[in-house]
């Protein structure tokens, strides 16, 4: 480990912190020359191998992610105009799916209307590994394309438990104010708690840590946020 990291790690001197006191520490411990991303990681008491224990959903972060989200819409008919008026960065049908198949990936999120899913299905190998495949559960396969575009532009993020039972999700940048980061993290954690599967037994939230891209992990007391 580098000296800068070791110096930052020494700042984390308690077993756990309440969320509002953790965020100023995350900001203080960030030492990179770029504006680091702040991420929340939650280890959950679920077994994602069972479909009924999969935890996934979306949340609109109150203060966004500090970057412009480039949203494209794959649609037909009136929905093309609707998507453009809502502020989509690129709108199209079969032509747009072919453009993506050809290697074009200058976007952050994809919205599709249900009637276009046959075409979109061919993009699974490209969009799936990037976590961009449109899905009805996350509101990205919908006839209400205007709402989907506006929510994504406003800072809507998707969370999904990985095969080890952990959720990783960005909640902003180090340049954000500590209160903004706290608000965003609270919104995410609350949404994950609400998404608890009925089949999950025992303790649901095991650990929560917050960290910047290069900085040390700051442990959060789950009790301080489970009552949010």
Question: How would you describe this structure to a colleague?
Answer:
- About 35% of the residues lie in helices and about 20% in strands.
- The protein is built from nine helices and nine strands.
- The protein has helices at about 5-10, 20-30, 80-85, 95-100, 115-120, 125, 145-155, 180-195, 220-225; strands spanning about 35-45, 55-60, 70-75, 90, 110, 155-160, 165-175, 205-210, 220.
- α2 crosses α8 and α3 runs parallel beside α7 (about 145-155).
List the helices and strands and how they pair.
Elements: H1 3-11, H2 19-29, E1 37-44, E2 56-60, E3 71-74, H3 78-86, E4 90-92, H4 94-101, E5 109-112, H5 117-120, H6 124-127, H7 145-154, E6 156-160, E7 166-173, H8 178-194, E8 205-212, E9 218-220, H9 222-226
Parallel strand pairs: 3-4, 3-5
Antiparallel strand pairs: 1-7, 1-8, 2-6, 8-9
Helix pairs in contact: 2-8, 3-7
């Amino acid at each position: 480990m580098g000296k800068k990291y070791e110096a930052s790690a020494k700042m984390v001197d308690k077993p756990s912190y309440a969320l509002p006191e953790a965020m100023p520490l995350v900001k203080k411990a960030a030492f990179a020359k770029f504006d680091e991303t702040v991420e929340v990681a939650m280890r959950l008491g679920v077994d994602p191998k069972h479909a009924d224990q999969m935890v996934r959903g979306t949340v609109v972060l109150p203060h966004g992610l500090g970057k412009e989200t480039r949203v494209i819409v794959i649609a037909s008919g009136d929905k093309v105009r609707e998507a453009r008026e809502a502020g989509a960065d690129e709108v199209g049908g079969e032509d747009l799916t072919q453009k993506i198949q050809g290697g074009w990936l200058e976007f952050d999120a994809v919205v599709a209307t249900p009637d276009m899913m046959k075409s979109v299905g061919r993009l699974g190998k490209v969009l799936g590994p990037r976590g961009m495949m449109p899905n009805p559960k996350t509101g990205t396969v919908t006839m209400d394309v205007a709402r989907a575009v506006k929510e994504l532009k406003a800072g809507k993020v998707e969370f999904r438990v990985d095969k080890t039972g952990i959720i990783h999700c960005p909640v902003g940048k180090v340049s954000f104010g500590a209160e903004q980061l706290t608000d965003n993290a609270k919104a995410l954690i609350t949404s994950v708690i609400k998404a608890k599967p009925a089949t999950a037994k025992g303790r649901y939230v095991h650990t929560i840590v917050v960290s910047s891209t290069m900085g040390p992990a700051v442990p959060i007391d789950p009790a301080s946020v489970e009552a949010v």
